[in-house]
Amino acid sequence: MDSLGWEHAPLVLYFVLIAGLLLLLAPSFARRISPASALFLALAGLSLLYTWWYMLQYFQWSKAAAATRAGLPSITSQQWLRDSYLFEEAWLIVSKTTEAWWWSEQLCAWTAGPLTIFFAVEGKRRGIKHLWAFMLLGQVVAISVAQNLFFAALALVPRSKVDTSTPSEKDDTPPTSKPGVSWILLLSVLASLFTVGLSPRTTDGPYFLPNLLIMHALLILPLVPLPTYHSSLSLGRLYSYTAIIALRLRLPTYTTLLEGHEISLVGLRAWLPELFKQAYTTLFQHPAQSSIGYDVLFASLSFVVWMVYENHKMGRDKVAWVWVAGLVSMTPLVGVAVSSGLYLGARELELEKVEGRRLVAEKKEL
What we know:
0% strand, mainly alpha, 73% helix, single chain, globular
């Protein structure tokens, strides 16, 4: 067994960071258990199992690849860690080809768009602490793990205690001049989605890693407590815009994948099975790809579960079930960023109606 050296420090600190984040966040989702929170905790556990099974295999592959580059049959872990750039290497693997990016793009657009907004807004509505830590945990472990822990935390907040107004509305501003989402959230989300679009175009140049780091940093920024300045854009519209942007980001990917195929209804019907067959093949082409692919699958699955759960809990103020069913069915094709943005946008419209009725009732009481 290799002895510990300074080369191990980043990896050791990495796991210390994960442990610290889990300890920090545990009171939010583990102070008690409800059936719904137990379901999301189970999904978090399954996601962790699948994503990290392949992540550990990726570590083994990376060490073997480093030995091959050195022209040696094997190398020590010190040599491996000294000569490898795991973060950049893994992301290059899952971004290089269109088939690989078909998977990775879904996770990036979901995280940069609807999920960041959801963490920021819903976390403040329900009084969940350390929102930035959920996002950071998602970045260092798996997004699907972090979002399931967040869903578990949400499930522990009784709906009777949920403030349906957005955080930007919790002041003395008259309803006629109600502020929109914060500028920090708006600009961070738009800039992060821009970096998502740049990512596959930078894989062969020096800007890939800087672009990737900027993307990750921008996701933390709106979740850190900072002075808030409000835009005029409503939350529902922002969710809808992220869905549109995510769909726009998918177009070049599908344009490339459709090359050589007939663009017609018959041609598309014949192509769809081929698309998902190729996606399945790509999922297992490399351990890094498998890890992020399962992250996408569990992120999509857990959001669908939460969407159905939340819509049921909304009672008469819910989004139409036919709309929810349509979004569920389209998720495998367009990605969770699109379907989630559309659902959350529609949900905000319903919550605004609830808030409007509450204000009318308060005026009548006066």
